[in-house]
Amino acid sequence: MHAGGAGLGKVQVRLKWDPSAYGEPARHLDIVAATYAVGDPYGRPEYVVHTESRSPDGTITMTRHSETGLGLGYVEIMELEFARMPSAYGLVVVGVAIHQNSGLRTFGDLSHTGVLVVEGYRSLMTDDFAGVADATAATIAEFVRDGSGAWHLRELIRGFDSAPTAFMAEMGRERG
Questions:
Q1: Residue 131 to residue 107: CA distance in whole angstroms
Q2: What is the arithmetic mean of pLDDT over 6-35?
Q3: Which of 43, 93, 136, 145 is the most buried (most CB within 10 A)?
C-alpha cells in the first residue's frame, strides 16, 4: 500500500506498447477504470471509464489515447483525481484490455508493454505484464479509500481471459 497519511491526490496511469509489424492489424489496448460504492466495493461498478467516456463528475478522464501504440513511450494516459472524488465511492479498480478485433492477442504477443502509475513526479508502481503474458486483459491496481477518507494504492496485477466488455464487468470482483 502507498505510504503517507494524506493519501493520494491526482494520479496518472500511463500505458505503452509497440505498434504492429508492417502489414499486421493494429494492436489496440485501453486503460479502463471501474468505480465502486463504499457499501458494495466488490459488487456492480457504479460507472466504468474508458476511451469513449469519463466519470460523471469529471474526476476520472482519459487525457491521451492511442489505437496503435506508436512505440514512442507512454501513449495512453488516464487521470484520476482522488482529492475531488465524492465520498460515495470507496474503491476504484484500474485495468488494461487488449482489443480482440483481429484474432486472439495476449500480453505475451505484444512487445515493450508497460504501465506506470505516478502522482506528480513520484512513481507509485510499474509493470511490464510479463506475469500475465497469457491474459487478454489485466487489472493493475486498486485504489482504496480508508476510514479517514484518504485514498491509497494497492498493486493488483491479475490476468483475465476476457474480451474488453466482459472484463469491465468482472474486473472488480473480489478475489477468491
A1: 9
A2: 89
A3: 93
Residues in the chain: 176
**CB of 41 closer than 8 Å to CB of 147:** no
The H helix count followed by the E strand count for the chain is 1, 10
CA distance 27 to 174: 30
In the chain, the amino acid numbered 161 is D
Residue listed under C-alpha cell 497519511: 5
What cell does 157 get?
Answer: 496485477
Q: Which residues face 115 on adjacent strands?
A: 15, 127
Q: How many CA atoms lie within 13 A of 4 on its CB side?
A: 12
* 41 grid coordinates: 466495493
Cα–Cα distance, 103 to 135 (Å, whole number)? 14
pLDDT single digits (tens) 125-140: 999 999 999 999 999 9
Residue 159 identity: G
Bridge partners of 163, per DSSP, are none
Assign 5 a pLDDT band (cuts: 50, 70, 90). low
Given this model, what pLDDT does residue 38 score? 94
Q: Decide if 42 contacts 36 (C-beta within 8 A).
A: yes
Return the C-alpha cell found at 115.
Answer: 504501465
| Separation of alpha carbons 19 and 150, rounded Å | 38
Q: pTM for the whole thing? A: 0.91
